[in-house]
Design goal:
By secondary structure, the protein is an all-alpha fold. Helices cover 56% and strands 0% of the residues. Helix 3 runs parallel beside helix 13, helix 4 runs antiparallel to helix 13 and helix 9 packs antiparallel against helix 12.
Length: 226
Amino acid sequence: MNPASPSSTETLKSKPASAHEQLRSSTDAMHRLIESQLNLASLRHPRAYRAFLLSNWPVVSIETALERAGIRQVLPDWEARSRRECLVADLRHYGISSPDIFRLDIPPDRGTLLGWSYVLEGSRLGAGVILQELSKSTENARQGTAFLRHGSREPLWRSFKSSLSAIDEDASAISRACVAANLAFRCFLHGARTTSATNYLSGAGGLNFGQSSLHREGSAWENDAE
Protein backbone atom coordinates (compact mmCIF):
# COMPACT_ATOMS: atom_id res chain seq x y z
CA MET A 1 0.00 0.00 0.00
CA ASN A 2 1.42 3.33 -1.03
CA PRO A 3 1.44 6.03 1.64
CA ALA A 4 -0.05 9.40 0.84
CA SER A 5 2.42 11.70 -0.84
CA PRO A 6 3.69 14.71 1.17
CA SER A 7 1.96 17.08 -1.24
CA SER A 8 -1.45 15.42 -0.84
CA THR A 9 -1.06 15.37 2.96
CA GLU A 10 -0.25 19.07 3.00
CA THR A 11 -3.28 19.76 0.84
CA LEU A 12 -5.54 17.96 3.30
CA LYS A 13 -4.04 19.81 6.26
CA SER A 14 -4.21 23.21 4.64
CA LYS A 15 -7.79 23.01 3.43
CA PRO A 16 -9.45 26.25 4.56
CA ALA A 17 -12.52 26.24 6.74
CA SER A 18 -15.84 26.49 4.92
CA ALA A 19 -17.82 29.72 4.78
CA HIS A 20 -20.21 28.28 7.33
CA GLU A 21 -17.42 27.37 9.73
CA GLN A 22 -15.78 30.77 9.43
CA LEU A 23 -19.09 32.58 9.94
CA ARG A 24 -19.81 30.55 13.05
CA SER A 25 -16.38 31.30 14.48
CA SER A 26 -16.45 34.98 13.54
CA THR A 27 -19.81 35.65 15.16
CA ASP A 28 -19.34 33.57 18.30
CA ALA A 29 -18.31 36.50 20.53
CA MET A 30 -21.20 38.66 19.39
CA HIS A 31 -23.66 35.88 19.98
CA ARG A 32 -22.33 35.26 23.47
CA LEU A 33 -22.67 38.95 24.25
CA ILE A 34 -26.34 38.87 23.31
CA GLU A 35 -26.94 35.57 25.07
CA SER A 36 -25.44 36.84 28.33
CA GLN A 37 -28.22 39.42 28.68
CA LEU A 38 -31.18 37.15 28.13
CA ASN A 39 -33.27 34.47 29.85
CA LEU A 40 -35.38 31.91 28.00
CA ALA A 41 -37.71 30.99 30.87
CA SER A 42 -39.02 34.55 31.06
CA LEU A 43 -40.79 34.14 27.73
CA ARG A 44 -43.60 32.37 29.52
CA HIS A 45 -44.56 35.81 30.84
CA PRO A 46 -46.75 37.68 28.32
CA ARG A 47 -44.89 40.96 28.79
CA ALA A 48 -41.54 39.33 28.16
CA TYR A 49 -42.83 37.51 25.10
CA ARG A 50 -44.15 40.76 23.64
CA ALA A 51 -40.75 42.30 24.29
CA PHE A 52 -39.13 39.35 22.57
CA LEU A 53 -41.24 39.97 19.49
CA LEU A 54 -40.28 43.62 19.50
CA SER A 55 -36.61 42.76 19.90
CA ASN A 56 -36.85 40.89 16.60
CA TRP A 57 -38.05 44.01 14.78
CA PRO A 58 -34.62 44.41 13.08
CA VAL A 59 -35.77 41.54 10.86
CA VAL A 60 -38.01 44.01 9.04
CA SER A 61 -35.24 46.49 8.25
CA ILE A 62 -32.81 43.75 7.29
CA GLU A 63 -35.21 41.92 4.99
CA THR A 64 -36.22 45.15 3.30
CA ALA A 65 -32.59 46.15 2.77
CA LEU A 66 -31.69 42.71 1.43
CA GLU A 67 -34.49 42.92 -1.10
CA ARG A 68 -33.25 46.31 -2.33
CA ALA A 69 -29.75 44.84 -2.62
CA GLY A 70 -30.88 41.90 -4.78
CA ILE A 71 -31.13 38.96 -2.37
CA ARG A 72 -33.47 37.15 -4.76
CA GLN A 73 -30.54 36.68 -7.13
CA VAL A 74 -28.63 34.88 -4.39
CA LEU A 75 -31.54 33.07 -2.72
CA PRO A 76 -34.16 32.44 -5.42
CA ASP A 77 -36.60 31.05 -2.83
CA TRP A 78 -36.49 34.28 -0.84
CA GLU A 79 -40.28 34.62 -0.78
CA ALA A 80 -40.44 31.40 1.23
CA ARG A 81 -37.88 32.77 3.69
CA SER A 82 -39.22 36.24 4.42
CA ARG A 83 -40.88 36.46 7.85
CA ARG A 84 -41.56 40.11 8.45
CA GLU A 85 -45.27 39.85 7.71
CA CYS A 86 -45.55 37.12 10.34
CA LEU A 87 -43.80 39.33 12.87
CA VAL A 88 -46.13 42.24 12.10
CA ALA A 89 -49.13 39.91 12.49
CA ASP A 90 -47.90 38.64 15.87
CA LEU A 91 -47.38 42.18 17.15
CA ARG A 92 -50.84 43.14 15.91
CA HIS A 93 -52.27 40.15 17.78
CA TYR A 94 -50.96 41.70 20.99
CA GLY A 95 -52.21 45.15 20.10
CA ILE A 96 -48.73 46.50 19.39
CA SER A 97 -48.30 48.98 16.55
CA SER A 98 -45.39 48.36 14.22
CA PRO A 99 -42.35 50.46 15.19
CA ASP A 100 -40.58 52.68 12.71
CA ILE A 101 -38.52 50.90 10.06
CA PHE A 102 -34.94 52.08 10.06
CA ARG A 103 -33.32 52.16 6.65
CA LEU A 104 -30.28 49.96 6.13
CA ASP A 105 -28.12 50.04 3.02
CA ILE A 106 -26.53 46.69 2.26
CA PRO A 107 -23.92 46.30 -0.50
CA PRO A 108 -25.14 43.98 -3.26
CA ASP A 109 -22.19 41.56 -3.39
CA ARG A 110 -22.85 37.87 -2.76
CA GLY A 111 -20.69 37.55 0.35
CA THR A 112 -22.34 40.47 2.12
CA LEU A 113 -25.84 39.31 1.21
CA LEU A 114 -25.12 35.81 2.51
CA GLY A 115 -23.61 37.17 5.73
CA TRP A 116 -26.72 39.17 6.62
CA SER A 117 -28.91 36.25 5.57
CA TYR A 118 -26.88 33.85 7.70
CA VAL A 119 -28.14 35.50 10.87
CA LEU A 120 -31.74 35.64 9.68
CA GLU A 121 -31.76 32.02 8.55
CA GLY A 122 -30.06 30.74 11.67
CA SER A 123 -32.54 32.55 13.87
CA ARG A 124 -35.26 30.26 12.54
CA LEU A 125 -33.63 27.07 13.81
CA GLY A 126 -33.99 27.64 17.53
CA ALA A 127 -37.64 28.61 17.29
CA GLY A 128 -38.68 25.14 18.38
CA VAL A 129 -36.93 25.65 21.71
CA ILE A 130 -38.91 28.82 22.32
CA LEU A 131 -42.17 27.19 21.26
CA GLN A 132 -41.51 24.37 23.70
CA GLU A 133 -41.00 26.92 26.46
CA LEU A 134 -44.17 28.76 25.47
CA SER A 135 -46.12 25.50 25.67
CA LYS A 136 -45.69 25.73 29.44
CA SER A 137 -47.87 28.84 29.34
CA THR A 138 -51.42 28.22 28.13
CA GLU A 139 -51.78 31.86 27.07
CA ASN A 140 -48.76 31.88 24.73
CA ALA A 141 -48.87 28.27 23.57
CA ARG A 142 -50.08 29.08 20.05
CA GLN A 143 -51.25 32.68 19.97
CA GLY A 144 -49.02 35.22 18.31
CA THR A 145 -46.40 32.65 17.26
CA ALA A 146 -46.54 32.88 13.45
CA PHE A 147 -43.04 34.37 13.41
CA LEU A 148 -41.60 31.44 15.36
CA ARG A 149 -43.46 28.81 13.35
CA HIS A 150 -42.59 30.23 9.95
CA GLY A 151 -40.81 27.71 7.72
CA SER A 152 -40.69 25.04 10.41
CA ARG A 153 -41.70 22.33 7.96
CA GLU A 154 -39.30 23.37 5.22
CA PRO A 155 -35.59 22.49 4.83
CA LEU A 156 -34.64 26.15 4.64
CA TRP A 157 -31.44 25.88 6.67
CA ARG A 158 -30.13 23.03 4.57
CA SER A 159 -30.80 24.84 1.32
CA PHE A 160 -29.27 28.02 2.72
CA LYS A 161 -26.07 26.16 3.59
CA SER A 162 -25.98 24.90 0.04
CA SER A 163 -26.14 28.48 -1.23
CA LEU A 164 -23.52 29.53 1.31
CA SER A 165 -21.12 26.85 0.11
CA ALA A 166 -20.88 28.71 -3.22
CA ILE A 167 -18.36 31.06 -1.60
CA ASP A 168 -16.32 28.37 0.19
CA GLU A 169 -13.35 28.97 -2.10
CA ASP A 170 -13.64 32.76 -2.12
CA ALA A 171 -11.74 34.18 0.86
CA SER A 172 -12.72 37.74 0.05
CA ALA A 173 -16.42 36.90 -0.11
CA ILE A 174 -16.19 34.99 3.17
CA SER A 175 -14.50 37.97 4.81
CA ARG A 176 -17.31 40.26 3.67
CA ALA A 177 -19.88 37.72 4.86
CA CYS A 178 -18.31 37.68 8.33
CA VAL A 179 -18.37 41.47 8.57
CA ALA A 180 -22.01 41.51 7.43
CA ALA A 181 -23.08 38.81 9.89
CA ASN A 182 -21.56 40.69 12.80
CA LEU A 183 -23.37 43.84 11.70
CA ALA A 184 -26.62 41.87 11.67
CA PHE A 185 -25.94 40.67 15.19
CA ARG A 186 -25.37 44.27 16.26
CA CYS A 187 -28.83 45.11 14.98
CA PHE A 188 -30.33 42.38 17.15
CA LEU A 189 -28.21 43.40 20.11
CA HIS A 190 -29.59 46.91 19.79
CA GLY A 191 -33.11 45.47 19.56
CA ALA A 192 -32.59 43.39 22.70
CA ARG A 193 -31.17 46.29 24.67
CA THR A 194 -33.88 48.66 23.53
CA THR A 195 -36.78 46.39 24.42
CA SER A 196 -35.18 45.39 27.73
CA ALA A 197 -35.33 49.04 28.70
CA THR A 198 -39.09 49.28 28.15
CA ASN A 199 -41.88 48.53 30.58
CA TYR A 200 -42.74 45.37 28.63
CA LEU A 201 -40.23 43.61 30.84
CA SER A 202 -41.48 45.06 34.13
CA GLY A 203 -41.49 42.24 36.66
CA ALA A 204 -40.80 39.62 34.00
CA GLY A 205 -37.03 39.28 33.94
CA GLY A 206 -34.99 39.13 30.77
CA LEU A 207 -35.22 37.43 27.42
CA ASN A 208 -33.16 34.72 25.77
CA PHE A 209 -31.97 34.53 22.19
CA GLY A 210 -29.36 32.00 23.18
CA GLN A 211 -31.28 29.00 21.89
CA SER A 212 -33.91 30.81 19.94
CA SER A 213 -33.31 33.72 17.63
CA LEU A 214 -29.58 33.57 17.33
CA HIS A 215 -26.99 30.91 16.82
CA ARG A 216 -24.42 29.16 18.93
CA GLU A 217 -22.30 26.06 18.47
CA GLY A 218 -24.19 23.16 19.97
CA SER A 219 -27.60 24.74 19.46
CA ALA A 220 -30.19 23.71 16.91
CA TRP A 221 -28.32 25.91 14.43
CA GLU A 222 -25.16 23.91 14.45
CA ASN A 223 -26.78 20.53 14.81
CA ASP A 224 -28.41 21.05 11.43
CA ALA A 225 -31.83 20.42 12.82
CA GLU A 226 -33.30 20.41 9.35
